[in-house]
Amino acid sequence: MKRFLLTAVFLSSSFFGFSQQKEWTLQECIEYALENNISVKQSQLDVDLADIQISDAFGNFLPSVNGSASNSWNTGLTQNVTTGILQTQTTRNFSAGVTAGLTLFDGLRNFKQYQYAKMAKLASEYSLEQMKDDIALFVANAYLQVLFNKENLKVIQSQHQITLEQLERAEALVEAGSLPRGDLLEIKATSASEVQRMIVAENQIEISLIALAQTLLIKDYENFDIAERDYDVFGNEILDVPVSEVIEAAEEERYEVKVAEMNTELAKKEVEIARGAYWPTLNAFFNYNTRESGAGRFVSAGLDPDEPYRQIGFVESTEEIVVAPNMVSELGNPLPFFEQLQLNDGISYGVQLNVPLFNGFSTRNQVKRSEVNVLRAEYQMEQTKLDLEANVYQAYTDARGALKAYEAALVAREAQQLAYEYATERYNVGMTNAFDFSQAKFNLENAESEVVRTKYDYIFKLKVLELYFGVPITDLKF
C-alpha cells in the first residue's frame, strides 16, 4: 500500500510537472507581442484601409453603370403615354433604364489619386514597422527588468546562505564561550534583514512578470514565467563607430524618417490633385431606356356604320370628290408587358464637357491650403530628423555611460570581494566583530547587485543604439 501511494504521488507530480506552461524566451515574447499587441493590430488596420483606398482610386478609372426602374400609379387628368391624349383616368406606368458613364479626362486627378493611394499605403507600412520596433524594445526592456529582478534575488539568496552558515558557526562558538552573544545577535539581525530583502525582491519579480504579461496580453499571470539564462553583451563594437555614421545610418533606415518623408510626398501630391480642378472635365455617357403602361389603347373597330366614307378632297378638273374609309376606333386592352418594352425602348449617348470658369475661389484656396500643408510636412520632416539626431546622440552617450558604469561595477565588485575575504579572515580569528563583518558582506551584496543592474541596463541601451544604426529588431542579439 505504501509503495502504491508513493507511485501515485510520483505519477501525479510528473503529470503536473509536464502540464506546466513553458517558460518564455525573449524572442518568443517579442514574436508574440508583434502578433497580438493592440497597437500593432491598429497599425495593421491602417494598412488594410490603405489597400481599400487603392481599390477606390483604381475604381475611378472604370466606367460607372447604374440601372433604374419605377412603377407608378396616376389618378386624374393625365396624359395617356400611349396616345398622348389628356384624359381623366387611373393608369399604371412602368419605366426602366441603364446608364453608363466614363470619365475621359479630369485634369489627371484620377491618376494622381491612384498614385496618392499607393504612397499612403507605403506610409502606413512604415508606421506599422515603426510600431513593431517600439513594441519590441518595450517588451525587451520589460523582459530584462524581470531578469534583473531574478538575478538580484539570487544575489540576496546567495548572501543569505553564507549568513546562515555564519549563524550556525556563531551559535556553536557562543555556546563554547569563545564568542560574545552580541555577535550572534548581530548575525541574526543580518539574517532577518536579508529575509526581508528577499521578500521584497520576490514581490518585484512578481510585479515585473505581471507587467510583461500585460504587455503581451496574457491573462494567466500565475503560470507565466520567463526562461532564465545568462544574457551576454553582444554588439559593443558599435561603440567604436563614430556617432556621425550612426546618425547617417539612422536617417536612412529609421521608419520615423521614412514616414515623415512619405508624408511630405503625400502633401505634394495633394497639391497636384488640387490643381487638377483648374482643367476641364470630359465625360462620356450612354443610356438605354424603355417604358410600359397599363392604360388601354385605341384600336380599329372597322368602318363607321353611319358614315362609312368621308370626303378628304376634291378634283377641280373632273369635279370628282375624293373619299376615304371612315374608320372608327375603340379603347382596347394594353399590349403585353414585354412587347411594350420592346416597342418603346430607345438609346441616347454622347459626351459632356465641363469647363470651370468661376467657383468662388474654392479651387484656388484649396491649392493654397495644400501648399501650406506641404510646408508643414517639410517642417515636420526637418523636426523629425533633428529629434532623431538628438535621440541618437542621447542613445550613444547613454550606451557609453552604461558601459563605463558596468566596468566600474565589475571593479567595485572585485574590490568588495577582496574586502569581504579579508573581513572573513579577520572575523574567523576574532580580530573583528560581527557588525564589521556584516557590513563587509552587505557591501559585497550591493556590489554584486550593481553589477547585475548595470549589465542589463547596458545591454538594453546597446540594443537601442543598434536599432538606430539600422539593425532589424529580429536580428538583435541578446
Overall description:
This protein is of the alpha+beta class and 478 residues long. The protein has one domain: Outer membrane efflux proteins (OEP), CATH 1.20.1600.10. Helices cover 62% and strands 18% of the residues. The strands form three sheets. The protein has a four-stranded antiparallel beta sheet. It has a two-stranded antiparallel ribbon with strand order 4-7. The relative contact order is 0.13. Residues 1-20 have low confidence and may be disordered. Belongs to the outer membrane factor (OMF) (TC 1.B.17) family. Its main location: membrane. GO terms for molecular function: efflux transmembrane transporter activity; porin activity.
Write a short abstract of this structure.
Helices cover 62% and strands 18% of the residues.
- What radius of gyration results from the CA coordinates? 45 Å
Structural class, by secondary structure, is: alpha+beta
CATH architecture: Up-down Bundle
CATH class: Mainly Alpha
Strand order of the largest sheet: 1-2-3-8
- The separation of the N and C termini measures 52 Å
Shape: elongated
List the domain count as a whole number: 1
Count of DSSP E strands? 8
**Topology pattern, helix = H, strand = E:** HHHEEHHHHEEEEEHEHH
Largest sheet: 4 strands, antiparallel
What is the CATH topology assignment?
A: Outer membrane efflux proteins (OEP)
Strand content: 15-25%
Percent range of helical residues: 55-70%
Low-confidence sequence ranges: 1-20
